[in-house]
Write a structure and sequence with these properties.
Layout (H helix, E strand, L loop, with lengths): L10 H20 L10 H14 L1 H9 L3 H6 L12 H10 L5 H24 L5 H31 L1 E4 L8 E5 H4 L9 E7 L3 E4 L7 H17 L10 E2 L12 E3 H10 L3 H7 L3 E5 L1 H15 L6 H21 L12 H15 L11 H10 L5 H25 L10 H10 L5 H21 L4 H4 L8 H9 L3 H10 L5 H13 L1 H4 L3 H18 L5 H14 L5 H8 L1 H13 L1 H9 L10 H4 L5 H13 L6 H25 L4 H31 L14 E6 H4 L9 E7 L15 H17 L10 E2 L12 E3 H10 L3 H8 L2 E5 L1 H15 L5 H19 L18 E3 L7 H15 L12 H10 L5 H23 L5 E3 L4 H14 L7
Parallel strand pairs: 3-5, 3-6, 9-10, 9-11
Antiparallel strand pairs: 1-4, 2-3, 2-7, 8-9, 8-12, 13-14
């Protein structure tokens, strides 16, 4: 879309320009350049005033460096495009004086600032078309990466030697540019997403000492990132984001070609295919890079029509839609509805699905891809024209927003001056005129986005209920008697209470304060709620449970609109809330999870652990690396969404108890891994990398060990996490950062950071309650323990009850190597030979203490009588014949017999340990079956009670037979129990 600037400036913008001009003239005068002003010419001065309307950044750069104006005028660079290769020549000339890395960094930043001014100038004045601006920015990134890398490689090779393959041939790094950089589509303030690779293993030759190629290129990569990304008094060159590499922040910084190929073949996710579409070699060895991309092409483009990609893209599309609904991104021209991201998604969706068979789709920039969609009749010509026009308009808007402060933003301004600036730069006389055009363009994109890979279920006709009678009840406010009669006829058993609920909602402060549009949405929604509530098995209960949610979201009426436009979601809401007050309360507190009700197929199909891990990583990789607040919100939403899916499946009967615990545990593990990586990255950014005992850098030598329910893969609703933190670093050696810490303090702060992320109360609540009391010496011990110290404690100081707890301990997240060490240590500690009489007495003593403090009155201090009374309560966990008795018997068996039967140490959950005891011939098969049945029955009852927000207690006459069997077996295994 061709835009031209209005001829006259509004008064507010003229004052802004006058201020900037006065500051610049003062700087020119102080630099002794006032007499040279005529050399700049009238055209420059006229254009300068127009540019200053749109860019404080340009004003600041010209003020800080008055000579810049004359350099820019030289060679007519503000009026013409740079010739091919000219950017590289200019940078080479600028960097020629650099003899140190600090000088290189300073010269790179000055080069960047000058060319950023040139590019903004040409873009704002429309001397450069939109995509010429993005090409110019991408070229600048390319040459900075290439020449910065070559300089570092040359200087590092002088001291460390030249990296070579096994045949002695020198090697270079391959730098892949992803995203907008890969497609030559950088915006005025883009991050650059990179992946580092090298051809093959080998080592350096000719240096003071030999290094592996990976270590050499890792050092080069680290210094290249710092060279570009570090903010100094001269600014920065480009912000660098490395999170798209395999394994994200927890992965190596550089990979060999073979390692990359193996990763993508065996573990590559669909979102990584999506990202790889735009991958391009931006620096380093171009020839080797071309070979790498050729190796990876089969991963990106499948040879057949890729139906698997359709479902993956549909999920990604739903993720985009949920993010827009959830975050309030209406004024974000990139991420909001009808924004830049949706145009890119349309093109890349067709590329993934059809690109393997249609090679014309195998290209990076979005506009040529859209042209192919029209040429090859994937989309109508008119649709493509609308998408291209909207895309250019949105990219121009993005540049107008970013040109102001050279700041990474896509949010429309809310202040009058900012709005006036953007409207003027975009060629409009007023903000209102500009918004009208923007909304039109975005509506076109949103319409086409909605039609791409639409779910067939979305098109099915939904049976419509007759809401008219309920509309009259809600809107006409009949007399109480008439309203109650209608409610009774509709199926409500307590119409007086139902009418009271409706009247209370109508009169609530939140409803009275609703704006007109929100009130209209409520008036449309309520008749549908009443009509659908009448279809539930218990309409009274459904209405009672859902009404607090309606009041809670009254002023956030997008949720009401969501439920109105998605009757299936409203139905699922009523079913879930009717089944569980706990779920009703959670949805009311955190209505953001209503998005999960939009897809019943997804709602009732919790993902496997690999899908969980991948989904969470996809969510987090989109968040800026330093935005901990948003990362914490993503983690909390992820947990609540997946707990809702588990509960929905549990209520529907499609997920048995053991699977419920599996999914809840897997969710916790996925979250813990990401929390650890976030905390580690934050600590390393602040303080550098800690050291191992041999002096080498640690690579996340840290593990989170889970005890209790999470260790035994038996998490239930509302369970806390019993955790122990273990590291394998040198506590005395300092980290290698600008603010070094000794290893001991580094790991302690890392542990504190993890706990903070897990337990901090944000607007979305906490992730988990965390209990660290099972660490060595409990609350008096160190928060984080070295593996050696943990081993000494377990072997020399630990009580028997601590070894009982160790039976259900396993690594949940962190370093796999350290996790294996822990598993071997656990086996060694638990498998030591013990004196059974002393062991039995220790176990009995601890069990009695627990009964004394935690059991109900009926069984306090001993076993229950032969008959259990309905008048008393049975604590499923603590009372005699309950869950803890089974756990203690299992733990006793492992401690007593694993020295002779090490297979008992393989698992940490009670069910499989009991299987092992049966298979080893230590317990009769019928006794094991009885214990397992009881254990599952108790846990299932506890789950049901938790969903009903009730304590884990049942009438004393329930589970009568199970309790007697468990007490009988307890007395057989631990005969002194009869005297307890």
């Amino acid at each position: 879309m061709s835009l031209s600037l209005p001829l006259t400036l509004p008064a507010s913008l003229q004052r802004l320009v006058d201020h900037h001009l006065a500051q610049w003239r003062l700087a020119v005068q102080q630099a002794g350049l006032a007499s040279s002003l005529p050399q700049l010419g009238d055209t420059f001065m006229s254009e300068l005033q127009q540019v200053l309307v749109g860019s404080d950044f340009v004003a600041e750069q010209l003020r800080r460096d008055p000579h810049m104006a004359w350099r820019l005028v030289e060679g007519e660079r503000l009026r013409r495009s740079l010739a091919p290769g000219e950017m590289a020549e200019l940078l080479a000339e600028a960097l020629a004086p650099a003899t140190t890395e600090d000088e290189l960094a300073r010269l790179l930043r000055r080069f960047r600032q000058q060319h950023q001014v040139r590019i903004i100038w040409r873009d704002l004045l429309r001397h450069a078309a939109t995509m010429e601006t993005t090409q110019d920015l991408s070229d600048m990134a390319d040459v900075c990466l290439e020449q910065g890398y070559r300089w570092l490689y040359r200087h590092m090779s002088e001291g460390l030697g030249t990296p070579c393959d096994h045949a002695g041939e020198p090697q270079h790094l391959v730098v892949l540019g992803m995203g907008k950089l890969g497609a030559h589509e950088l915006n005025l303030s883009s991050d650059i997403d990179l992946i580092f690779a090298y051809p093959s293993s080998g080592e350096t030759q000719g240096g003071r000492r030999s290094l592996s190629n990976q270590e050499f290129f890792t050092r080069v990569g680290q210094r290249l990132i710092k060279l570009l990304d570090e903010v100094t008094v001269d600014g920065f060159v480009f912000r660098v984001d490395m999170r798209l590499r395999p394994y994200g922040d927890s992965g190596a910084l550089v990979f060999s070609f073979n390692a990359l190929e193996q990763y993508y073949q065996s573990q590559g996710r669909d979102w990584e295919r999506y990202a790889m579409i735009k991958a391009r070699v931006v620096a380093g060895d171009q020839q080797a890079g071309a070979e790498l991309l050729s190796m990876l092409k089969p991963f990106v483009y499948r040879r057949y029509l890729d139906f698997a990609a359709i479902e993956a893209l549909r999920n990604l599309k739903q993720m985009i839609q949920r993010e827009v609904q959830r975050k309030g991104l209406e004024d974000n021209v990139k991420l909001g509805a009808g924004g830049i991201r949706e145009v890119e998604f349309i093109g890349q969706a067709f590329q993934l699905i059809h690109g393997g068979r249609d090679r014309s789709l195998q290209q990076r920039p979005i506009l040529p891809v859209l042209d192919v969609l029209a040429t090859n009749v994937y989309l109508p010509d008119a649709a493509v024209d609308e998408l291209k026009g909207a895309y250019l308009f949105l990219r121009d808007t993005e540049h107008a927003l970013q040109a102001i402060d050279d700041r990474q933003t896509q949010m429309l301004p809310i202040d009058a001056l900012g709005q006036a600036r953007v409207a003027w730069v975009m060629g409009f006389d007023s903000w209102a005129d500009y918004r009208t055009q923007l909304d039109l363009q975005r509506s076109k994109v949103a319409q086409h986005f909605a039609g791409v890979i639409a779910d067939p279920d979305e098109d099915e006709d939904q049976p419509q209920l007759d809401y008219e009678e309920w509309m009259l009840l809600w809107n006409d406010l009949p007399e109480a008697e008439q309203a109650q009669q209608q409610l009774a006829e509709g199926g409500f058993q307590d119409p007086v209470r139902a009418w009271e609920l409706l009247r209370n909602l109508m009169g609530s402060a939140r409803v009275r304060a609703m704006q007109r549009m929100s009130r209209e949405r409520l008036d449309i929604f309520m008749p549908r709620l009443l009509g659908m509530a009448c279809e539930q098995e218990d309409p009274d209960l459904a209405l009672e449970r859902v009404m607090p949610l309606v009041e809670a979201v009254a002023r956030r009426s997008a949720y009401l609109l969501l439920l109105t436009e998605n009757p299936g979601a409203l139905h699922e809401l009523l079913v879930l809330c009717s089944a569980s007050p706990l779920i009703a309360e959670q949805i009311t507190r955190y209505p953001v999870v209503l998005d999960e009700l939009l897809n019943s197929g997804r709602l009732y199909r919790p993902p496997e652990i690999a899908e969980l891990v991948d989904e969470l990583r996809q969510e987090l990789v989109r968040i800026p690396e330093d935005d901990l607040e948003q990362q914490m919100e993503v983690l909390r939403y992820f947990k609540r969404a997946h707990v809702l899916r588990v509960v929905a499946s549990e209520i529907a009967g499609s997920l048995p108890l053991m699977k419920v615990s599996d999914y809840l545990t897997w969710t916790a593990e996925a979250i813990l891994q990401q929390v650890l990586e976030l905390a580690w990255s934050d600590m390393v950014r602040r303080h550098g990398v800690p050291r191992r005992h041999d002096g080498s850098p640690c690579e996340l030598d840290f593990t989170i060990v889970g005890y209790g329910k999470v260790g035994g893969i038996e998490l239930s609703h509302g369970s806390d996490l019993d955790l122990v933190f273990i590291h394998d670093g040198d506590t005395d050696a300092e980290t290698d950062g600008a603010r070094p810490l000794d290893g001991g303090r580094f790991y302690t702060r890392l542990g504190q950071r993890i706990i903070h992320i897990l337990t901090a109360q944000t607007t979305s609540g906490a992730l988990y309650d965390v209990d660290m009391r099972l660490r060595p010496s409990g609350d008096a011990g160190l928060l984080v323990t070295s593996l050696d110290a943990f081993a000494r404690y377990q072997r020399e100081q630990a009580w028997t009850w601590e070894h009982q707890a160790l039976v259900r301990a396993r690594p949940l997240a962190g370093c796999p190597r350290l996790g294996e060490k822990f598993i071997r240590l656990r086996a060694d500690v638990l498998g030591q030979e013990r004196e059974e009489a002393k062991l039995r007495q220790d176990v009995l003593s601890m069990r009695q203490k627990m009964r004394n403090n935690l059991a109900t009155q009926a069984t306090h201090g001993g076993f229950a009588p032969a008959a259990f009374s309905a008048e008393t309560l049975f604590d499923l966990k603590q009372d005699a014949g309950g869950i803890v008795d089974i756990e203690f018997m299992v733990q006793y068996a492992v401690l007593a017999w694993s020295c002779r039967y090490p297979e008992l140490l393989r698992f940490t959950d009670n069910i499989r340990i009991l299987d092992g005891l049966r298979d080893a011939g230590l317990i009769a098969g019928e006794d094991v079956q009885r214990l397992q049945e009881a254990y599952k029955a108790y846990r299932a009852a506890a789950h049901r009670l938790a969903l009903q927000k009730q304590p884990g207690k049942t009438p004393g006459d329930q589970f009568h037979d199970y309790r007697h069997d468990i007490i009988r077996l307890w007395r057989q295994w631990l005969p002194e129990a009869a005297d307890a």
